[in-house]
């Protein structure tokens, strides 16, 4: 995807939303993920991604995108990249999740809004709300607002 001024903000929003999923996937041994990618056992990877995603998102929100890559050399830590399709209400995102020894990162390759606004900032806010709605656990900001309302 061609990067623009709001790409970094959207990637940050997505990274925050799928952070727990990335942490869950990092519990899988890197050698196992690499062997599944190398042998093209995409259905197995899809099952692992779905199992991890169901802990944090409504069913069908996060799916394996049938692709990935890895970097493994003698003098470095392994790095595994998984293609993901993320579909919260009203948005389709194709992204690459990179898992490393101490961290994970995400890069958006494609994003499509079902009913896009002419204002990119409005689309970004919609993306954030849609990802929050697709998660099982409400954001802390939402909880703070609920506590203030309850008093």
Helix content: 40-55%
- Which range does the strand content fall in? 15-25%
Mean pLDDT: 90
Largest sheet: 4 strands, antiparallel
Strand order of the largest sheet: 1-2-3-4
Distance between the termini: 46 Å
Overall tally of structural domains? 1
Rg measurement, Å: 16 Å
Number of helices: 5
| String of helices and strands | HHHEEEEHH
Uncertain residue ranges: 139-151
What gross morphology would you assign? globular
Structure summary, number of beta strands:
4
Structural class, by secondary structure, is: alpha+beta
Can you tell me about this structure?
The chain has helices at 7-25, 30-38, 42-53, 120-134, 140-150; strands at residues 62-71, 79-86, 91-99, 104-113. Strands 1-2-3-4 form a 4-stranded antiparallel beta sheet. Helix 1 runs parallel beside helix 4 (120-134). It has 151 residues and is an alpha+beta fold. 44% of the residues lie in helices and 25% in strands. The chain is built from 5 helices and 4 strands, in the order H-H-H-E-E-E-E-H-H. The chain starts with 6 loop residues before the first helix and ends with a helix. It has one domain. The longest helix is centred in the N-terminal third of the chain and has 19 residues, at 7-25.
